[in-house]
Structure formats: C-alpha cells, structure tokens
Design goal:
Elements lengths: L7 H15 L4 E3 L7 E5 L7 E5 L6 H22 L6 E5 L10 E2 L2 E5 L3 H4 L3 H6 L3 H4 L6 H27 L6 H18 L6 H6 L5 H5 L5 H4 L7 H22 L1 H22 L8 H17 L1 H25 L5 H18 L7 H25 L2
Parallel strand pairs: 3-4, 4-6
Antiparallel strand pairs: 1-2, 2-3, 5-6
Length: about 375
C-alpha cells in the first residue's frame, strides 16, 4: 500500500485551514489575482481576514510590498462588505530568516516555519488561545487529508443547510393578512364615502395628534391600516407585498409581525411630534421593513452586499428624498418607522449571525428610542 507524503508547508496549510474553518467559523473567499495564498473571512472574528501566504519572500523590500498588496485587497473587501474597518492576520509560511515581521495599520503578521510553531507562536496564542488544543493532530499524510476534507465538508453542509433555512421561500401568511386588513378597511371607508373624506378616516382611527394626546392611543396603530385614495393603497400594498414577503421569509413570521407593528407605532409617534394634521397609510411600517432589511442585509452582506449597495440603500434614500420634496407625504412617519424597524430587528436578533449582547443592546436602544418619542410627543409638546 502506497504512503501519501505531505510536505511541511502543505501540512501547515491544511492544519491552519482546518482550525480556522471548523473551530473559528472562518469561510474561504476568492480573491482575484493572487497565487499560493488562502484568504479566510469571519465578520465576527478577532481578525475579519486571515491570510495564509506560502509565497517565498526573500527580503524586506518584498515583504513591505506584500503588506502593501494585502492592505490594498483589504480596502476592496471593506468596500464590498460595507464594513467600517477590516483587519487581517497575515500568516507567512515562507519568509526568509533575516526578515522580521511587524504590525502595521490593520495588518498583523506572524511567521510560521513548521507545525510546532503554530502551537508556540505567542502572536497566534494571544488571539486564538485554543489553537494549541484544537489543532488537528493527525501526522500521517493520508489520514490528515481525509480528516481535514471530511471535517470541512461537514461544516460546509451545516452552513448550506442554515443558508437554505434562511433564504428558501416559505409560505407567506402574515404579509397577506396585513394586506387583507388594509384592503377591507379601504373598502369600508370607501363605501362610507371616505375615499378622500378626512372625517370618515378620522372615525376609523387615523393618526391625529390632538386626539392621541387626549388618550386615543389606538390611533398610533390603526392609522397604519387606513389609506386615502386608490393610488395610495395600491402603491403601499405593492411595496408591502414585495418587501414584506422577503422579510417574512428571512426572519420568520412572528419576528416579522413584531417588527412591522413596532415600526408602525414608532412612525406614528414621529408623525405626532412633527404634525397636527391627520395621517394615514402603511408607509411608516414599510420603511420599518426597509430598516429591518438594512440590518439583516448587513449581517448577511457576504450574500446581500451588492443588493444593499445597488437596491436597498438607494431605495431608502430616494424615497426619503421624495418625502422631503412632496408636501403631502408624511416623511416624519417614514423616518420614525425606518429607525424603529432597524432597532426592533436588532433587538429580536438575526439567527446565527449575532450574539446575546447584540440583542440586549438592541432592546436597550429600542426602549430608549421609543421612550424618547413618547416623551417628546406627550410631554415636551403641549
């Protein structure tokens, strides 16, 4: 039976890649124009990027150029992933003995010459203390290849199942119910002569600051389901169906409903602060769904980064701009809903993408935001 021999550099690479993927949740990424390098990414890791470089570097000048190249690629990754900063651990496997590694802005370099260095290098151990115990122990070449491949494939399958669970199309129920309620109320108000009649809309529960301050708190929510005119409800229900269906699929029905209702209330509160005129429509809640999509997209920016830049953010900016240009649009409700939806999603959390501390901070931030709106709407403004 033939024996598979793995050379020193390949053994180091396999063990490092196995550790970072299976133990530290890093994911391989494709970087165009590089050779003999492995790039791994984890948005939640102590280093967002781990680069394993097996190219031979023979002098200080070449090493400085290598750092420059790494930082240039980091700028591209930062732009693509909409990150505020991207730091990298630069693991050099083929560095000439006369070259000293050093830290630069956003790039920390370590030198690894053999497998033993992995578990003794203080730079690695200070950031990844469990690497000493979790590094795969196989020494036989064939066993190492088999086990590394098996473990990485198993992790990839788990991630694929999670991806499928999150992004696969699911039955749309809550969105259809919300649309049905709005349509039913639109038909009722129309039959009662309230297509454009503010008195009928008022009787059905429009957002109206004086009445809300007088104790009719229910208007903060009921006004979201009322619409003044056919085009008004048509545009809002179309937007709700398109955006709501996606959000309901991504975060689940009850989280989605919670985000929608919180967005509706926060939008109405902001409207109460800035106007005493009647306000109706689902647009504040729909902007809350855009805020939800913004938070969700950021946490899934490896998949949705381009969608965030080319669709979600431009849609938000364009609609807010239109709200400032067209007097009849209640832009205060849009802004209130957008912020409320973002904070509500932060509080409820994105499955497998954030931590308990993020959700706690989300609930604290959301509570402060809503308390502030209530204080301004009911206490500061007479």
């Amino acid at each position: 039976m033939s024996t598979v021999v793995v050379n020193n550099k390949d053994e180091i690479i396999m063990k490092l890649v196995h550790y970072f993927i299976t133990e530290e949740n890093y994911t391989p990424i494709i970087v165009n124009g590089v050779k003999d390098e492995i790039w791994l990414e984890n948005d939640e890791g102590p280093y967002k990027i781990v680069r394993i470089n097996s190219n031979y570097i023979h002098n200080d000048e070449q090493f400085r150029f290598d750092i420059f190249k790494t930082r240039s690629i980091l700028k591209q990754i930062k732009k693509k992933t909409l990150s505020f900063s991207v730091n990298a651990l630069n693991i050099q496997l083929n560095l000439n003995d006369g070259i000293k590694t050093y830290e630069t802005k956003n790039v920390d370099s370590v030198k690894i010459d053999n497998v033993a260095d992995i578990t003794t290098n203080q730079g690695l151990l200070s950031i990844f203390p469990n690497i000493k115990d979790k590094l795969i122990k196989n020494t036989d070449g064939l066993d190492l290849i088999i086990n590394v491949t098996k473990d990485i494939n198993e992790k990839t399958e788990r991630e694929n199942r999670q991806y499928e669970k999150t992004f696969s199309q699911k039955p749309i129920i809550i969105t259809k119910i919300l649309i049905a309620i709005s349509i039913i109320l639109f038909v009722l108000t129309t039959l009662n002569g309230g297509l454009y009649d503010p008195n009928v809309l008022y009787n059905y529960g429009s957002v109206y600051a004086p009445s809300i301050r007088a104790g009719q708190i229910y208007r903060l929510l009921t006004g979201t389901f009322l619409h003044a005119g056919f085009m008004h409800i048509l545009c809002n229900m179309y937007a709700l169906y398109i955006i709501g269906s996606q959000i309901e699929t991504f975060i689940g029905k009850w989280k989605y409903l919670t985000v929608y209702l919180i967005s509706a209330i926060s939008g109405s509160l902001m409207s109460v602060i800035f106007t005493d005129a009647q306000s109706v429509g689902a647009s504040g809640a729909i902007f809350g769904l855009l805020g939800c999509l913004l938070y969700f997209g950021y946490h899934h920016r490896l998949y949705l980064g381009n969608v965030l830049k080319s669709q979600i953010i431009p849609v938000i900016i364009l609609n807010l701009a239109l709200g400032f240009l067209i007097p009849s649009i209640d832009n205060a409700a849009h802004i209130g809903g957008l912020v409320g939806g973002f904070f509500a999603t932060m509080a409820l959390g994105i499955e497998n993408k954030d931590h308990l501390s993020d959700r706690i901070n989300g609930w604290i931030t959301l509570s402060i935001y809503l308390i502030f709106l209530v204080y301004v709407a009911f206490i500061m403004i007479p």
